């Protein structure tokens, strides 16, 4: 997946533990762990907002887009009409 979750890095920089963040933003430690590992397919904007508010960061500090090499090599379809 081309989206890289860097939440663990930001948490380490801020010296915030998972259980503290999970409690502060109102999600389970299990869901936070899944989010940190990148094993989730979706993220509510309200959750992202709460994380950014608590950690005093922006979404781009937590999420990074890195296209797959296959996607870069594959030519885009030409638009017709």
The CATH superfamily turns out to be lambda repressor-like DNA-binding domains
State the total count of DSSP E strands.
2
Proportion in β-strands: 5-15%
- Rg over CA atoms, rounded to whole Å, is 16 Å
Question: Strand order of the main beta sheet, please?
Answer: 1-2
> Runs with pLDDT <50, length 5+?
none
CATH class: Mainly Alpha
What does the main sheet amount to?
Answer: 2 strands, antiparallel
Q: Please tell me the total number of domains.
A: 1
- Structural class, by secondary structure, is mainly alpha
Helix content: 55-70%
Ends apart, CA distance between termini:
32 Å
Instruction: Write the CATH architecture name.
Output: Orthogonal Bundle
Number of discrete helical segments? 6
């Amino acid at each position: 997946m081309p989206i890289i979750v860097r939440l663990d890095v930001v948490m380490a920089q801020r010296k915030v533990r998972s259980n503290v963040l999970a409690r502060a933003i109102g999600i389970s430690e299990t869901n936070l762990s899944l989010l940190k590992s990148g094993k989730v397919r979706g993220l509510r904007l309200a959750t992202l907002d709460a994380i950014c508010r608590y950690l005093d960061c922006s979404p781009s500090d937590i999420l990074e887009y890195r296209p797959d090499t296959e996607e870069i090599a594959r030519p885009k379809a030409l638009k017709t009409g």
